[in-house]
Amino acid sequence: MKNRFLANLLLTFIWVALTGSFTIANILFGFILSYFVLFIITRGSGRARYFKLVPKLIGFFFYFLYQLVKANVQVAWEVGTPKLHMTPGIVGVPLDVESDAQITLLANMITLTPGTLSLDVSEDKKVLYVYSMYITNREEFIRDIKDGFEKRILEISS
Amino acid sequence: MEVLLAIMVGTLYASGIYMILRRSLVKLIIGIILLGNGANLLIFLLGRIAKGSPPIIPGDSKVFLEAYSDPLPQALILTAIVISFGLQSFAIVLVKRAHKVLKTDDLDEMNATDEYS
Amino acid sequence: MTLDNYLYYIILPALSIAILLVFFRFFKGPSISDRVVAVDLLVTIGIGVIAVYSILSHQPTFLDIALILALIGFLATVAYSFYIQKRKDRDK
Amino acid sequence: MTEQLVIYPLITQMLLAIVLMFFWSRIQWQRVVSILGSLINLGVAVWLFVTVWQGGTLSIQAGNWEAPFGITFVADTFSATLVLLTSIAGVAVSSFSAGSVIPARLKFGFFPIFHFLLLGLNGAFLTGDIFNLYVWFEIIIITSFVLLTIGGEKAQLEGAVKYFTLNILASIVFLTAIAVLYGLTGSLNMADLASKVAAVENRTLVQVNALLFLVGFGIKSALFPLYFWLPASYHTPPSAVSAIFGGLLTKVGVYALIRVFTLIFEVDPFLENVLLAVAVLTLFSGAVGAIVQNNIRKIFSYLVICHIGYMIAGLGMMTEMAITGAIFYLIHDIMVKTNLFMMSGVIYKIKANHNIRKLGDFYADHPKLSLLFAIPLFSLVGIPPLSGFWPKLSLISEGWNTDNFIVIAAIIFASFITLFVIVKLWGEVFWKTGEKLPEVRNFPYFNKLTGIKKAQMLAPIIFLSVVSLYLGFGAGNIQNLAERIAFELMDNQEYINTVLSK
Amino acid sequence: MKTIILRTASNYMLPLLLVFSVFILLRGHYLPGGGFVGGLIASIAFVLHAFANGLGDTRQLIRFHPGFLMPAGLTVSFLSGISPIIFAGKPLMTGLWYPHHLPIVGNLGSALFFDIGVYLVVLGVTLTIIFTISESV
Amino acid sequence: MTDTIIGIIATLGTVFVLLAGVGILRMPDTYLRMAVTTKAATLGIGLILVAAAIYFNDLSTTTRVLAVIIFILLTAPVGAHLIGKASYIKGNKLWEKTIMDDLDGKYRKTGKNISLPRNMDHDKEKH
Amino acid sequence: MLSAILLGFIFSIFLVFAGKYFKGKLAVLSSLVPLVLFLYFLSFIPQVASGEVIRANYQWVPSLGLNLDFALDGLSLLFSLLITGIGFLVFAYTAAYLKGHDYLDRFYGYLGMFMGAMLGLVLSDNLLSMFIFWELTSISSFFLIGFNNTSEASRKSAVLALAITGSGGFLLLAGSLLLGGVAGTYSISEMVGLSDSIVQSESYLWIVLLIFGAAFTKSAQFPFHFWLPGAMKAPTPVSTYLHSATMVKAGIYLLLRFTPVLGGEDIWNTTLITVGGITMFYAAVHTLFRTDLKGVLAYSTIAVLGLLVFLIGLGTEYALTAAAVYIIVHALYKATLFLVTGIIDHETGMRDITRIAGLRKVMFPVAIAGFLAALSSAGMPPFVGFIGKDLVYESTLHMGTWSIVLTVLAIATNILVLYAGFVAGIKPFTGTLPESFSKVHLPGFLMWLPPVVLAVLGLVVGLFPGIIDGPLIQPVVSAVGIDSELHLKLWHGFNTVLGLSALTLAVGFAMYFLIKPSKSKERGVARFDFISPLSLITSFGSAFRTFSNWWTRIFQNGFLRNYVSTIILFLVVLVGYSLFSDHDGIPIDFSSFSRMTYYEMIIMGIMFLAIFFVIGARSRLTAVVAMGVVGYAICLMFVIYSAPDLAMTQFSIDTLTVILFVLVLSSLPKYLSISDYKMKAIDGVLSVAFGILITLIALEVLGEPVNKEVSNFYADNAYVMAKGKNVVNVILVDFRGVDTLMEISVLTIAAIGVFSLLKLRLRRDDRELKD
Ligand code: NA
Ligand code: NA
């Protein structure tokens, strides 16, 4: 998978060198182009993972953006209206992700979306304590996170 | 604008001295830092200020084509900032040690070396 | 209205107001954490101000400062929280 | 490329400092390297001095950027002389440190810092750039902080807090003065500033600027009423440190004052009055302070302050002869004060005490040493024809010539008190039958030390005593030197022309 | 601070910051940056690592005492400062330049080595100070 | 055209930043302030930076802008997490309308002053 | 001649190294040194008597006008002979007196040094070199008085003597320099020719007063006389040599030497007559109340010194001749008496006149010497003392209106001097020998011969005044600037003077038999000690010490805040005065300033608020965080004002400082707010004044024209010559690279300092400073 990525980068670089144009657009174009070229020339499941990953990554990115914007709008409404409607609380979310990197990524994603905040991870790395502004139901909140960010992180990283 | 900056410099000097006079070790250091900032800004101000024209020769040209702000005070301040950093670090540690050994934060209690022996 | 004017008369004042609001929180506290959060936010908004200012003065150079701010401002926050966790209740 | 010679003293000291840092905890190596290096540095300083004496002012432009654009180093007779004196004191104190400073301190960078201090001093004497002078001053103060606190004993720390604060204050004032100077002239090169400052129309601002420099350097020189850091701290560090402090630290402030007020600013009547008033009060306060002290090093500390007054009086009168006196005094004072603090160190090693009320018996127990110590002591007093006497001739007669009777009175008063204090000290420490001092456990008493250690401590005292004797008996030569320096200072054209290569 | 979040993040940031610091160092002659800021960023990288992982780990990572960087850096700067005296008979700090243009660095000259020395010293100094302080709290 | 895009993106960013400003002022407790604001700003600043990148439209600026954004995304949540945790340990009160606290008792069992390593070098302290 | 002077110094330096071997015989041999010199000077008598002045010149510090110019005229010769002649006897005497003393070598060393100095003093024709030797005599005297250095009284007396004569020395220095400046030369012989212009110069009064100060202190004139009785703590040879025969006469020498230069004016004569008169009478009266032999002699010495000053003040031919004679007279008999006293002290172990008697039985030659000297001091014919006294009365009688007063004064003094001479020279030997003295015996001839020689000389010279008249006295008088026809004679026939002499003797004898020295009288007069100059000077001394203490405490009071305030106050007053005094206002050119924008104002506003927040913060961390805000605001300011490098650096450093603070803060003390409101108000006013001053200076500087020559050079050459585009960086690593090199050195040193401050833990053994 790393090889694929490096090859992708190399091809991008060659493209940029050939065209002689160091603009961001050209580089992006070179990357996409070489990605497709690589996608086409690659066979076999082992090597194909790179090509499955990239769309997932992009998907993850847009999911994150969506969450970010959604939550921001929610907060905007909260902040912008005179009354406070929050029902905040701290919830311990049991974790399926195991590695430090996954936990960190998940926690950061949660924190990055307004309205929630990862406070701590338990010593045994089994529970993530999340502060949230809107909690109506503990289970629902946990499910949101597990089906949302955690699922996607598991997808891209395993 | 310069007027405001000059007042700012004066404020930094005044507050720096005021903090040094407060008998407390921690305030002493804060005072010294404020004074240092004041002196740096004074150099900056008196070297004359200019907006939006950093002294970096643009792109492909070999000399400045437009106005540029005076680089010399900036270099001087940089040196001064770095030196003050060295001094401040030492000061912070000195205060820490002094507090630990002398067991007081009150500078007024630190007058044994001026006593007659 | 040119972009410069728009940035100068609308965006920059808006950011300035944001800074003032945050600064007000810094003043009010009441807890040290609130102040640290406020300072952290100030630095973040500072990055935005620098970005706008670099557009206004046509100097991409200033973005380098934003880079440093983003990197290093974080460390101050780490240090503060380190301290808050560490210190005893002497301070109040 | 004789001009290269100007920075050789700097290169040797910096090299020494760096090399010694690599020898971090090998203290035996450090001792050897420091002493040998100091000797080499002395050789370089002599070489520089002789070259300047014979060939006139030298200057070199760092980075090969013509003045006033780069940083200039200049060795006129004044600078070369001070570099030479620094190197002499450097050799002496290096050896003295090797013998006297306890290993624990040596293992924590004593020698590298010490050579950084000498580097700073030499740099301050040689630079021709006002901001660069600030940087050298910072080297000096940071090294002095470290040397002052090394070991971190109670008194050291307490003294250091005061020393630190007031010296930082001095640096801030200095920096403020540089800011104003740059704002007025746009230049930092001292030779260039001479004409640029003269061309500034707003003389009030020039005077204000001069006063800022006066206060900034005045704190460093321990003038009245700016000297408080000195009596609070000079008696706290190891004697070797006191020696280099007492000999050179305040003098670099005096050097800067003399340089700035002869080259950049002219001393107008107001400044003259200020300088003279300050000089008189410095003489007075230092003298009066020395009377009431009982700690040997505190006595010397106050005398350091007191005697700065002579030099400032010379500067204040601003005639060639008065400056001559100030310069001669400067030369004398560096040698003698360094020696006296080393002397107090030996006394301490022998008796484990600094209090003159408790000390005693020195003459009976150590007649030869007493005789040796009498040389710096009575040189300090200025018993003619010892070195302290000669500059007073110039100063007092210039006092008469310029009708500064109060200055004369102050000079005489200070001389008298110095005499009295030293004589009292002699009576107490050397003549008196002292108290039976309790044996301090594990104290490295002098007689327990190895012969090498003893030699390392005594040789520099003998060396500096010989130098002071030469200053006294060879006063003709020193007077010539001082006159030449004064001439060059008053008529700064050679300096300016050399730097700006006109 | 015992938090895996910070620890993980810091492990990723360390190489990032180090590379970034070298970048800042090398471009200093052309754009804002240089040895000083570069050195600070590098040291901040290690400090961050130490905050997250404890000083012991960071020390293991660096292997030698950071204090060693100070004389090393001083040597580099000092030698590049006096190299013109030794090699060209010119005053100290006179720029000596390699005649050809290099990528990234641009012109290779004594000034760059000087700046590298600054970088090393700043790194050494900052780490020494911070490590010493946190060891003795 | 570009100017318009820049204007819109910058405006969006500024709005978020402003929201953060209002939020930090209005919210009743430390956690809410953090939750509401800290990262609203992240989005806002990110947008403003993107605007700058579009404005200068060259590789080096764009890479720098990307670097800034990545740095912010990397550091901001970690920072927030740290302050949040620190505040909780220190005992900053939760807002009165808070409905649950799963962390309750997790730290305070050991007494009011949670015992934390005095030393940054906590690994070393074990042995 | 230089070698003659140096001989003494060489001798003492030799002793430093060879001291160990200097014992017994060698000490006796060492008296050859003064003897050789004596003979050497003796050989000049013919030349000098013929009016010649022998000169020798050596350059020393020519640019200061200081050269070793020596001139041997009558006056110098007289003194040289006294110095070496009495020196010879004292050297010999000491060998016996201090026989076996541990520090004999030192003693001779000091003596040799003193002799050299004294010779240099009287031979110098250069005022400055004379001053040098003058000071050296004070110093050697100091060491000699303090010779018994374990005795506190000795030490105190030595310090007192040096304090008085030393301060006189400084007056001489000031006077010499002033005189040299007025005369344009330091050559004394040249000054004689310039006398008129010197006397008429404005500085004349100063010169005279300073010279008087020097002479009076050295020659123990009232009210500076009190150090001399104290100096008697020295071993007797010292008292003999320094404090009677030679050193105390240096002041007399000085006055005589300058009579032709400065004399003849009213202020000169009146002052000398008054001071000399008071001194001689005051001291003479004091001799009545002393029971210590040396005390008696000390006061009578002071009386004679007063008399000499008095005579110089009279300034007539008679008076000056009398002075010259009296110098010899006094040297001969007083030296004898001292030596005799020394012998008594040495043999009996006491000097208490009320308990010593009958010693003639055990030390007859000594008694002879004492007797002869006493008679000479009494002015009995045919002793030389008679001639001297005659001349004194002769001169007082010729003083016109004041002659009666002056004569009475002289007579009274002489009577008392007689009394003192008898008490010291005769009384110990008369009466019955107390039992306790039965074992007392005559010392070796080395001790008793010198006084005998001196005493006999007094008789011989009296009988044959021609021995001294032509060869010594006349040259002295002419050296003092008088063409004298006066010749010494023992017998002048029956005249007023003879009558007065007879009166003196009669009253003196009567007093000697009627008034016995007693302890009770001594105690009685001691009740008035509190108004004596000594106790006045002592209480002045302690008052001065108290004052010194107070003054030192006022400034060095231990409070750092006071130090800082004083410095700032000094700065504010000085700079403020300069700024406001010169013109009507402070010109600030507002038009040259740039437009204020809202964002700048906001940044500034935040910064102001943050600063006040720092000041008012109650918690350390809050203050530190607020400091961070101040730093970040400055950083933003650097951005706005085109200083990206600065912004970066400021920001990084600020953050690092915060980290440092945070790391140490928990081990730091509580954040104290200790000052009361009054202190805060005072400090506030001072700080604000300082801040306003800086602001005003800044604004005024901003109105001045700008010179950008240097920075333009940087901008133009940054790329072209230094191959860099970031000019600030180019300045840092190239144009001003030295700054940077030193800046990183500062950092390194600071780091080492931090390291050693925190890591260096001295072992308990090393805890107290050991180096
Ligand atoms: Na968040
Ligand atoms: Na969130």
Automatic annotation (TrEMBL), chain A:
Signal peptide: none annotated. It comes from the Bacteria. Keywords: Cell membrane, Membrane, Transmembrane, Transmembrane helix. It is a multi-pass membrane protein. Its main location: membrane. It is found in: Cell membrane. It holds the Pfam family MNHE. The chain crosses the membrane at residues 12-41, 53-69. Belongs to the CPA3 antiporters (TC 2.A.63) subunit E family. This is Na+/H+ antiporter subunit E. It comes from Salinimicrobium tongyeongense.
Automatic annotation (TrEMBL), chain B:
Keywords: Cell membrane, Membrane, Transmembrane, Transmembrane helix. It is a multi-pass membrane protein. It is found in: Cell membrane. The keyword Cell membrane applies. It comes from the Bacteria. InterPro entries: CPA3_antiporter_subunitC (IPR050601), NUOK/Mnh_C1-like (IPR039428). The keyword Lipoprotein does not apply. Pfam families: Oxidored_q2. The chain crosses the membrane at residues 6-21, 28-50, 75-95. Belongs to the CPA3 antiporters (TC 2.A.63) subunit C family. This is Na+/H+ antiporter subunit C. It comes from Salinimicrobium tongyeongense.
Automatic annotation (TrEMBL), chain E:
Its main location: membrane. Signal peptide: none annotated. Keywords: Cell membrane, Membrane, Transmembrane, Transmembrane helix. It is a multi-pass membrane protein. Residues 5-128 form the Na+/H+ antiporter MnhB subunit-related protein domain. The chain crosses the membrane at residues 12-30, 36-56, 68-88, 108-133. InterPro entries: CPA3_antiporter_subunitB, MnhB. It is found in: Cell membrane. Belongs to the CPA3 antiporters (TC 2.A.63) subunit B family. PANTHER family: NA(+)/H(+) ANTIPORTER SUBUNIT B (PTHR33932), NA(+)_H(+) ANTIPORTER SUBUNIT B (PTHR33932:SF4). This is Na+/H+ antiporter subunit B. It comes from Salinimicrobium tongyeongense.
TrEMBL record, chain F:
The keyword Transmembrane helix applies. The chain crosses the membrane at residues 6-25, 37-56, 62-83. The keyword Transmembrane applies. It holds the Pfam family PhaG_MnhG_YufB. Keywords: Membrane, Transmembrane, Transmembrane helix. It comes from the Bacteria. InterPro entries: PhaG_MnhG_YufB (IPR005133). PANTHER family: ANTIPORTER SUBUNIT MNHG2-RELATED. This is Monovalent cation/H(+) antiporter subunit G. It comes from Salinimicrobium tongyeongense.
